[in-house]
Amino acid sequence: MAPAMSAKVVSLPVKEPSLSPILSLTATAMNAVNAIILDRMQSEIPLIPALAGHLIAGGGKRMRPMLTLAGAELVGYQGTRHHKLAAAVEFIHTATLLHDDVVDGSETRRGKETANIVFGNPATVLVGDFLFARAFELMVEDGSLKVLKILSHASAVIAQGEVDQLTAQRRIETSEERYLHIIGAKTAALFAAASRISAVVAECSEEEERALDDYGRNLGIAFQLVDDAIDYDTGTEDMGKDRGDDFREGKMTLPVILAYARGDADERRFWQDAVAGFRVEDEDLAHATDLIRRHGAVEATRERARHFAERACDALSIFPDGSARRAMVDAARFAVSRGY
Amino acid sequence: MAPAMSAKVVSLPVKEPSLSPILSLTATAMNAVNAIILDRMQSEIPLIPALAGHLIAGGGKRMRPMLTLAGAELVGYQGTRHHKLAAAVEFIHTATLLHDDVVDGSETRRGKETANIVFGNPATVLVGDFLFARAFELMVEDGSLKVLKILSHASAVIAQGEVDQLTAQRRIETSEERYLHIIGAKTAALFAAASRISAVVAECSEEEERALDDYGRNLGIAFQLVDDAIDYDTGTEDMGKDRGDDFREGKMTLPVILAYARGDADERRFWQDAVAGFRVEDEDLAHATDLIRRHGAVEATRERARHFAERACDALSIFPDGSARRAMVDAARFAVSRGY
Question: Is the pLDDT of residue B315 over 70?
């Protein structure tokens, strides 16, 4: 009998999740999408491309159109219809960003002054409307009623989610369930739709459509959770987000909801005052951040995000393993590791 | 030879143009449209129907959906598809009104406080977005890509017209041509589309489609001209419009453009200051109104409106005479007589 082999422990390098695979996977198609975006944001009114370009050229990650492109790779779609639709998705997203910044009175985004600061609220609202209309024109050119249905419904859900968030603002009683419902609408609905339409153009089965929808939706929730965690995460590098904005606006994001739920009576009083808008100084933000840290609320929020990211990855299990699926899994895991 | 007959002069009563015929023509269908509007502005977020209802229930004239309904009567359409589409048209219009009031900072509309005053700018922007998305959902349910194309394009044109108007604001050099281009986009594009889609659902010829488009477009221009005339017309009853708003906002409407063009050097200096925003007192408005009156600029604006209204009426000449056509002609003539 041969002697028992002694197990040789090979220390494999831990693979950090990365966006690189999905960026490579979609790079060529993204060039086509960017060309459509640049072409279709033009107008005889010079203020329109100036304002739209301020945001569109401002270094966005193009996450949502990337989902459409990656989905098309995953299902082996050979055509180019998804380029126009990915541009439409980005236009819808850009329109909502423009309106969000007006609604929140935001002053910076991605480290730059917001369009509402540079061009004023009126032009920002109207150029948002233009991009939204242009998105529908692009979809109509493509001609799929199914895609139009998915994206018009997503647009209505997004607007409802934004109004719902407004209603919940400065309301300390907002629950985690309510919060998840809001981000499911305002953020995840477009992720889901962007991902799903790749299956529609490729004429996949209903099951594949649903799987891509599930991937996008769960990824969108994870993405928003991490975004909201970063706003209170002092340990993280600057992500171009204006830290403390959520706090000053009295937004009930999960770190606050959890810190409030886990806090004692004194802390709860602090949160009630802060969310109501009576504690907006830097020292209040510092205290809030400290409470959130002490109760592990950022880590818990990230843990929730990991849960949804894993659901996103598992939703892809009906598709054969391959470079596209691995890239999408990696992207989901990267989304929750952002800022570490 | 018989003696020459003496002509007997019969004094026919001069028939005042009236909205009554078109209201009767479309009354039953409008009930169906109103039911759809009420049903489809609902949402699980209570703020949405509250805010939308504030404006929608606020006594609007439903001019645009009325054009869709009247057009359907004109071409003898027997179905009900146009009900949903007329509701979509009204939703697009309502969305633009909500955003307009935010953009202009308007405080009253139709004699009531605006939604932005009652509910704030953020909710008003977002509910506008919701209604816009809902309009597209209604169109998708109908399923005509041709209608979707017409109304998505009109929506993009409207937004461009609004931005163009913003660009022209406080610019004394704005010409009548530029002004006509702006109102052709911001107002007449939706009138044209609303009218045209009745021919699309009825599967009319391209010629009939174009005729209805021409009717709506010219009527829309006439309508906006009269609206802008009323803003400076002291001889008119209050139309629920906030007289003087255009003046204080430095909007270059035709009465101002004509008074400036016809004014002497002193008057032109006044207009330059006023449009630039340095003359915003009640006495300045009174002086402006007086200059406009002295130069016959309101009457000239109304005369331009009559011209476009007649073009609207003549566009219908390809359709057989009948109660629908007469009602639409009457409506166009009524539009320019408003406020007399």
Answer: yes
Cα of B159 to nearest chain A Cα, Å: 5
Task: Measure the CA–CA gap between A314 and B33, rounded to whole angstroms.
Answer: 45
Distance CA B331, CA A188 (A): 47
d(CA B264, CA A169): 55
Reported as a single tens digit per residue, the pLDDT across B279-297 is: 999 999 999 999 999 999 9
Nearest by CB: B132 against A104, A132, A140:
A132
Domains in chain B with CATH codes: 20-337 (1.10.600.10)
Q: Which of A96, A132, A160 sits opposite B48 (nearest CB)?
A: A160
Q: Quick one: which of B108, B157, B202 has its CA closest to A136?
A: B157
3-state secondary structure (DSSP) of residue A133: helix
Buried b (16+ CB within 10 A) or exposed e, B281-319: eeebbeebbebbbebebbbbbbebbbebbbbbbebbeeb
pTM: 0.92
Residue A235 has pLDDT above 90, yes or no: no
* Contact yes or no for B30/B62 (Cβ under 8 A): yes
A167 to chain B, minimum CA–CA distance in Å? 8
What was the ipTM of the complex prediction?
A: 0.91
Taking an 8 Å cut-off on Cβ atoms, the answer to whether A160 and B43 are in contact is yes
Contacts of A177 (CB under 8 A, 6+ apart): none
Which of B136, B139, B151 should be substituted to probe chain A, the one whose Cβ sees the most A Cβ atoms within 10 Å?
Answer: B136
Kindly list the distances between the CA atom of residue B107 and the CA atoms of B101, B118, B166, B242, in Å, as whole numbers in the listed order: 8, 9, 18, 9
CB-based contact B173:A130 (threshold 8 Å): no
Q: Which amino acid is at B103?
A: V
Within 8 A of A158 by CB-CB distance, chain B residues are 129, 133
Residue A239, pLDDT > 70, answer no
Q: Tell me how far the alpha carbon of residue A338 is from its chain's centroid.
A: 12
A280/A23 Cα distance (integer angstroms): 40
The values of phi and psi at residue B335, to 5°, are -55, -40
The single-letter code of the amino acid at B273 is D
Position A82: which residue type? Answer: H
